[in-house]
């Protein structure tokens, strides 16, 4: 989940729509909340992008990542897994010199490595040949949280722990249980919009 801040619940905006405070003031975060966060992502490229951005967000604010998202897309070939999987050491050094993105060598190397793991999974080098999006969605829980306050939103779940373990088994890195739960929130696998938010239930996955 993007940064929420302490002691916050819902704020009703001038448009009459209730949002959590993290999405109520910054126009960029508000637009992300209103149009994208929690909506289903089922394509391989879309899932790879979200997984990559969640990894880069570790230790940083989500607003920072969103502001750099166009630069990330330009630097990482629009997060096309095949193209990123072909990155070389020269590309890594190029990215380390790119001030428009987060210049963290471990995260850059993880993104390249995760692209290769994504391609290997899809191309059948793994045991079952499943694609990244299908694998992530296979960890959808039987029920979703129904938080009334931000304090009630979990930061991990048994499913995110299991997903992290499975991705690591397949060669992915920077995919810990907390990061994977944030991914599951972002792509609609769980619905952690607060009860009372105008976006609660927007994904169509959960009634």
UniProtKB/TrEMBL annotation:
Keywords: Glycosidase, Hydrolase, Metal-binding, Zinc. It comes from the Bacteria. The keyword Chloroplast does not apply. GO terms for biological process: base-excision repair. One of its GO terms (molecular function) is DNA-3-methyladenine glycosylase activity. It holds the Pfam family Adenine_glyco. InterPro entries: Adenine_glyco, DNA-3mA_glycosylase, DNA_glycosylase. The keyword Mitochondrion does not apply. It is an enzyme of class 3 (hydrolase). Its EC number is 3.2.2.20. Zn(2+) binds at residue 193. Gene3D superfamilies: Hypothetical protein, domain 2. SUPFAM superfamilies: DNA-glycosylase. This is DNA-3-methyladenine glycosylase 1.
